[in-house]
Amino acid sequence: MIEQDTIKLLRECDAGVKMGVSAIDEVMEYVHDQNLRNTLQYSKSENQKLQTDLQVALADYHDDGKDPNPIAKGMSWMKTNVKLKMDESDSNIAELISDGCHMGIKSLSRYLNQYKAADERSKTIAGRLIGTEEKLSLDMRQFL
Which residues, 6+ apart, have CB-to-CB distance to 70 below 8 Å? Predict the structure, then answer.
């Protein structure tokens, strides 16, 4: 049970990190403010560090991880691109990123509760990812 919950939690974290990096990449070309750009780049680098840790943990269980749900990714892409075509402002970008962070925090919190038997390392990684999303959400407030 511990191993199954651990793998499932790590997979969900892996999908979440990939989704977050993808969302940042999607908006980056529209960013005007250098401080917003720096904040997003920093968050992306933190996510990439977590992704490295996730890959190591998943490899220990001989698992390749998980890509984001294609439907969720497609819906996110559509929402982002439609909203940015209508309004390319930095405040709109900050709102999109904040919304994504909130969805990620909710999902990861749900998975932490769902996979209670997961090992401490995977729970710590999930907690770090939630913390990264919370920080980015807070950082976005100054750009709203």
Answer: none
